[in-house]
């Protein structure tokens, strides 16, 4: 079966669409690590982590190597970290736009901050982003 570029994109992006899998990638970084190191770092059942690792491996994101009784994983292509940085930049841009829209709404809503006395609370919430 010939896969198109779209098929590969879907496969890779689907594998990256889970928070635990993203955390696993961050945990691995540029190192090779044994499943015996990965499982304790996440406090989940080995079967759960193994399923996540399998999804990442099958999507071509991770490489797997057997060393005796140990199974080791590493990120296959360091360009993945460039992709994640680009996604982070997109997310920050969206948050910034949302923040601007929110403050525009607060400024236009004469009743909101003064009536409830919570403008300082809102300021604290948004500056923490």
UniProtKB/TrEMBL annotation:
<dbReference type="Pfam" id="PF01022">
    <property type="entry name" value="HTH_5"/>
</dbReference>
<keyword id="KW-0805">Transcription regulation</keyword>
<dbReference type="InterPro" id="IPR001845">
    <property type="entry name" value="HTH_ArsR_DNA-bd_dom"/>
</dbReference>
<dbReference type="InterPro" id="IPR036390">
    <property type="entry name" value="WH_DNA-bd_sf"/>
</dbReference>
<dbReference type="InterPro" id="IPR051081">
    <property type="entry name" value="HTH_MetalResp_TranReg"/>
</dbReference>
<dbReference type="GO" id="GO:0003700">
    <property type="term" value="F:DNA-binding transcription factor activity"/>
</dbReference>
<feature type="domain" description="HTH arsR-type">
    <location>
        <begin position="1"/>
        <end position="95"/>
    </location>
</feature>
<protein>
    <submittedName>
        <fullName>Transcriptional regulator, ArsR family</fullName>
    </submittedName>
</protein>
<dbReference type="InterPro" id="IPR011991">
    <property type="entry name" value="ArsR-like_HTH"/>
</dbReference>
<dbReference type="InterPro" id="IPR036388">
    <property type="entry name" value="WH-like_DNA-bd_sf"/>
</dbReference>
<dbReference type="GO" id="GO:0003677">
    <property type="term" value="F:DNA binding"/>
</dbReference>
<keyword id="KW-0804">Transcription</keyword>
<keyword id="KW-0238">DNA-binding</keyword>
